[in-house]
Amino acid sequence: MKKASWILCCGILYSTTLNAKTIKVGPHQEIADITTGLQKLSNGDTLIAEGGTYHEKNLVVDKSIVLIGINHPVLDGENKYENISVKADWVTVDGFTINNSGISSTVDYAGLKIYNRHNVTIRNNIFNDCFFGIYSQNCTNCTIKNNQLSAHQVQEQRSGNGIHCWKCDTMQIIGNTISGHRDGIYFEFVTHSIIWRNLSNGNLRYGLHFMFSSHDTYAVNIFENNGAGVSVMFSNHVHMFHNSFRENWGDGSYGLLLKEISDSYIDGNIFERNTSGIFMEGGSRIEMYKNTFRGNGWALKIQASCMDIKLKNNNFLGNTFDVGTNGSLVLNTFDYNYWDKYEGYDLNKDKIGDVPYRPVSMYSMIVEKNPPAMMLFHSLITTLLDKSEKVIPSLTPENLKDNHPLMKPLQL
Amino acid sequence: MIEAISISKKFGKLKALNNVSIVTGSGQSIALVGPNGCGKTTLIKCILGMVVPDSGTIKLKSESIATGWKYRSIIGYMPQVGRYPDQMKIGQVMDMLTDIRQSPSSIDEDLIKAFSLKGLYNKRMGTLSGGTMQKVSASIAFLFNPEILILDEPTAGLDPVASEALKEKIAAEKQKGKLFLITSHILSELEELATHIVYMQDGVIMLYKTMEALKVDTGENKLSRAIAQLMTKPAP
Amino acid sequence: MIKIVKYILLDILRNKIVLAYTIFLFAITFCVFSLEDNAEKGLLTLLNLILFIVPLVSIIFSTIYIYNSSEFIELLVSQPIKRKSIWLSLFTGLAGALSLAFIIGAGIPLLIYVRSVTGLMMIVNGVLISVIFASLAMVAAVRTRDKAKGIGFSILLWLFFSLVYDGLVLFLLFQFSDYPLEKAMIIISALNPIDLGRILILLKMDVSALMGYTGAVFKEFYGTEKGLFVSFSVMILWILLPLLYSLRKFNRKDL
User: Fold this and answer.
1) What is the ipTM of this complex?
2) Closest chain A residue to C194 measured between Cα atoms?
């Protein structure tokens, strides 16, 4: 029975490959350019391009075919054209080098653009100095995998996003490396999608810019040294797992900026050396477990407009300020976290501190109310104020405290 | 040489000097006497520029001392109680002063020899007895061969031998025509040294006369008696 | 005058307190940098220490030293030396010895561990603050003959600049919180040498990013060559004004 089904499978495969055609193009082949090659193909066929440079101007792929580049053939957009326009479903573009797309302030030129399609796969390509890198609009179930995108613009206006998805569903953005673009990955109105194992560093604005996108997950990504960090706004049901937000240092930079986010999970992430690890505004019903905040200016800035934020089992290590807030009403809970600034004791040896920890320092409250007081940063008086506030709390929010601070950091 | 015209000085409410005027010439040896707190030391310090008078002018060789400082090179001063940096050794103090003054006139080490101070050069000032300290002060006052010598209680605390050596030195220098200004409570020794006498009381100079004139006026042969007579007489 | 400076400097350097101070600074700086894994954090710890200890030691030590030198001053005043030279020599000796102690104690470890503009800034500011507080000590010591009062006054001066002034600033900030005070803060910060030193050092460090808009306004001013010039001129004024005031007083002082 098993054998029979195997034979059947092979038979089906054989019959399909039988009908499909594969042609090669390249400087040493009969057909020298891809556009001519494409004309000879029909749905389900494969085109293999040899190494070399192709000047295809705007290459329009309007048949469901597989395009494979050997030795990364170069498609040069000469700073004028959109290198590849995908206008068919079930297209695969694999192994190309896509350079120098057009730059315009009115048209969103991209190295590769997918127009209202589904099941398109873009993988193993290298994008150099494109305006937008990979641009998908109104797409479903597309895979963008293992691409390398880099650009070298200095001004935000002259630079587009690395991977740009607009109004898409079930997208898979996996294992890409993006640097030097405006936003590394841009999501707007994208649902049920995953962003996994990407590295987004040195982009001009955000490593990840994420808006009006719900039911998405991003996990195991590294966002490093981007102009303003990562911004996730106006979305719900977002899952953020095991990402690293690092080195977003500068004025108005955040590891993760959260605005109007609800019903989301932020677990197992690392926030390291950011001006603010997380800045949260208007969030609700967010659960944060097992994150590590290390060496940030503010580990967490949580505005009074947030509610039902739960923080549990997080590590706070070597941050200048642990938590900053702007109001006295606190509807969030902190419990069972490790704070390296905790000075309490543990008499019953249950590894939980016996007195609560107040992560908001007096000075951070003062600065929040009166920003010019930043002039007194690291002065003797602020140190004394913080110490006295620890003994007799008066200005810091009464119920912003961790009732069960851990005595030892969690092994995360 | 010294002309002090209507000097007044107040310390808080206390009038230490009240309109004091005194003119001296070279070759004189003036004894400043008077009860404790009468303003002797203040007057000396005014001349030295250590105390700044509230009013009045002091001239030295017709030059006002208010603005100058070089005039002090012709003055040798021996304070009532010498105060020196505790850490320094006698030798270092001497060397330092010599170093700072770079006095062109010859250095006069007579007193250093007379007091045999050289043997103590390695002692720190902080460890010295009052008498030894006075010896050092006296030696320093004479060290640079000054034209004017101001000695505040010179023999207080000195042993008889040293005291005698100092008096001999004073007598010898007086012969060279130097101006001496000496305060002391031991009137007998002033009798030997002084040519003139100034008696002060409550910040005012009551009397400025030559010794002979004083003795004639009071009819007493001994200075101590003469002074005692002055002191019992009510102020005019 | 150079000769007097030489004698004073030798005397101060023989003093065990200055030696202890140097070793203390050296030990602390070394400890801070070997304990903190990251040089930036070490610098911050050191900044707090320097702004606390250096002014305190400088002003107290100088005040006590001046009182203890009263005999020396008296001896010199009766000599043919300008009072001005005596006083300035005393100041030069103190400022020189304290600066030397700071450069050896904190400067050398700083140069070893952080060879950056920030480290250099810290050394320059540490030296300036040492000198400024020596100059303030001259004021404290010339005002009264009473040693206890003089030392008390110098402690008050230190307390004022390191704590009370900032407290007043905080109070003012809340009183006038409806007004944009960032620009005014520049002037206010310049009126306290400790604040000025702290801000100059902070602006050279990464942490200045935490200072937000205030930091940006400060950086815009102090970050320029002109701003740097102005702030160092202010520091120099902080040395000169107290010194000249004390000199005036000393010239008329009865000894």
Assistant:
1) 0.83
2) A379
